[in-house]
Write a structure and sequence with these properties.
Layout: H1 2-14, H2 18-92, H3 102-108, H4 137-151, H5 163-168, H6 198-207, H7 211-248, E1 260-261, E2 277-278
Antiparallel strand pairs: 1-2
Length: about 280
């Protein structure tokens, strides 16, 4: 092709047909420009496609991270409500609590709250190199909503904890191993009932009825109630972001929905070559 155009140029020059040669040269330049423009167009389209694909991958990860956070918030909310119920039981009916587990009720009342965060400290990728399409208003809208959530995702209430230990410490009461959400499982049936001596248990039974101790419990309860409000707001925000993502991309999916088990225990599938069954 190049040889063909070169021959045409040489022929026009040899025949001193300068005007036609000039038109030919201009045409050749136009063809080159058109070729460059086409190449740029194709390159831009490829970059846009790659950007959309990258955004979709990040958005899918965001959707899954938020879904895990929704579950964590739900579990934490339930456990704090359990903590408030324990406080109410100590305040209103301490004698109804078996003496063998009363100390665990007391210490569990202000156990520090543990929220299992996914990427709470991370910006989900939107602030770290994700190129947004400035012409895609829907994309900008969902990205803005995600950013807002990541910046304001958790309540800003100081968690009161350790107050009971400080109160009981001067009385020589030891501090047991308490795990938020686990120790109270099955109404404290799995705790070490021999950790406290009979004298320590009786002393705690007496102390929980004092005004000073009851004041501590009421303060802890009020703190937990404020945290419940914060968790509820975080839950609503998380669900709102999930809905926004689903509206932007109805095909978004939870990655762990594809996890499966193969084996005879699931619907009679055999141990070799059986089809995976979703969990």
């Amino acid at each position: 092709m190049i040889k063909f155009f070169r021959k045409i140029r040489q022929k026009l020059l040899q025949e001193n047909r300068f005007s036609k040669y000039l038109l030919y040269a201009i045409g050749e330049i136009v063809l080159v420009v058109i070729g460059i423009l086409i190449a740029l167009y194709i390159n831009n389209k490829n970059e846009e496609r790659q950007s959309r694909e990258h955004f979709a991958l990040v958005l899918e990860q965001v959707f899954n991270d938020i879904d895990i956070e929704v579950q964590n918030l739900t579990n934490t909310h339930r456990t704090i409500l359990e903590q408030i119920e324990i406080i109410d039981k100590i305040l209103m009916a301490p004698d109804s609590i078996p003496l063998s587990v009363l100390p665990y009720y007391v210490f569990y009342a202000d156990t520090d709250i543990v929220l299992n965060k996914t990427n709470a400290q991370q910006p989900f990728g939107f602030e770290s190199g994700t190129n947004l399409d400035l012409d895609d208003l829907d994309q900008l809208k969902v990205a803005k909503k995600v950013r807002s959530y990541t910046e304001n995702r958790y309540w800003h209430v100081k968690v009161l904890s350790g107050e009971i230990s400080k109160f009981l410490g001067p009385y020589g009461i030891p501090v047991p191993n308490i795990v938020f959400g686990l120790t109270a499982y099955d109404d404290f049936k799995n705790v070490d009932v021999h950790f406290f001596t009979p004298g320590e248990r009786n002393q705690i039974k007496m102390l929980v009825k004092t005004n000073a101790f009851r004041t501590h419990l009421r303060s802890i309860k009020a703190n937990r109630q404020r945290i419940i409000i914060g968790i509820s707001r975080s839950f609503e925000d998380a669900v709102s972001v999930q809905k926004a993502i689903q509206e932007y991309d109805p095909n978004i999916r939870l990655l762990y929905d594809d996890v499966g088990i193969i084996g005879t225990a699931i619907n009679g599938y055999d141990d070799v070559g059986a089809k995976s069954t979703s969990m």
